[in-house]
Structure to design on (319 residues):
């Protein structure tokens, strides 16, 4: 990303001094539409130099009564004025429909997707800036999406900073810009600790004893809907005139792990969250079942992506 120019620094100073000038207001509810009352236009450095050259050409053409030079000056001036209108229309009517982002761990980049309605108009050379990150995009006449990568620092809800949409299309003579500040909060999961002991112990209350091939026979029970056919004891079922199922013991290592907040003495509040986060990630990666016990809630036992995200969300939203 290029270093800010003197014009950019001047603009940032005006934004701090005169926030109303750049609509530095409260967040807005979606959808947000850019209209003529919120789009601003100023000449770029190149545009200012181009205007100065036109003034010199105009003075020379009038001084020497050179009709050809005067015609050229007026033609270039007309092109410059029309480019200002094109830059304005490149943003006018652009509508922000939705903001989406998948939660990430604190410290990772949050991929924020902004979905726009272009109002069936091709829009070229747009630039979107947010929290020091910028991306360039061109839209077709169909709904389009822009992805911003934002830095994350801490867990919990992260308010989306305001987004600056701008363009210098078509000739770079004028810069048109506007602000988008959607009232959206994005969830950031806690950062796991880098190293530490592995989770130990099982959830004895919810220990799972489900059948599995190769386990020891624990007994027989009546058939229930959903039981595997290969576990039906056909010979014994024929004698009793009803279906009986072999019930097998499952090894202890397949029982649900207990990830208990209260079993972490000597650790600070955020350190406990970081350790439990690491244990949840490791349990999910290993395909294990686990129960997460927090000071005011107990999640599980369970496994899979849904349980994983539910546990990390609960850790992220702890007070």
């Amino acid at each position: 990303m290029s270093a800010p120019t003197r014009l950019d620094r001047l603009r940032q100073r005006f934004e701090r001094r005169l926030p109303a000038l750049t609509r530095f207001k409260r967040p807005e509810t979606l959808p947000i539409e850019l209209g003529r009352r919120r789009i601003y236009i100023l000449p770029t450095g190149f545009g200012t130099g181009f205007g100065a050259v036109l003034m010199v050409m105009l003075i020379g053409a009038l001084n020497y009564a050179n009709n050809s030079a005067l015609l050229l000056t007026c033609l270039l001036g007309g092109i410059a004025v029309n480019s200002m209108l094109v830059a304005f229309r490149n943003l006018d009517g652009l509508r922000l429909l939705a903001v989406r982002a998948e939660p990430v761990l604190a410290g990772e980049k949050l991929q924020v997707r902004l979905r726009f309605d272009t109002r069936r108009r091709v829009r070229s050379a747009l630039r979107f800036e947010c929290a020091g990150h910028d991306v360039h995009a061109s839209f077709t006449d169909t709904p389009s999406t822009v992805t911003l990568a934002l830095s994350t620092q801490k867990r919990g809800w992260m308010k989306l900073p305001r987004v600056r949409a701008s363009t210098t299309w078509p000739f770079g003579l004028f810069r048109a810009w506007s602000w988008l500040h959607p009232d959206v909060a994005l969830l950031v999961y806690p950062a796991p600790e880098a190293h530490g002991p592995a989770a130990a112990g099982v959830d004895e209350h919810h220990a799972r004893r489900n059948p599995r091939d190769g386990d020891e026979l624990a007994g027989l029970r009546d058939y229930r809907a959903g039981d595997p056919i290969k576990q039906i004891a056909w010979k014994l079922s024929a004698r009793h005139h009803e279906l009986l199922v072999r019930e097998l013991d499952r090894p202890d290592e397949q029982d649900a792990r207990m990830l208990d907040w209260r079993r972490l003495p000597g650790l600070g509040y955020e350190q406990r969250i970081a350790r439990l986060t690491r244990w949840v990630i490791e349990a999910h990666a290993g395909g294990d079942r686990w129960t997460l016990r927090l000071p005011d809630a107990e999640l599980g036992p369970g496994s899979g992506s849904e349980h994983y995200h539910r546990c990390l969300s609960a850790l992220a939203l702890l007070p």
Q: What stands out?
A: The chain has a mean pLDDT of 84.
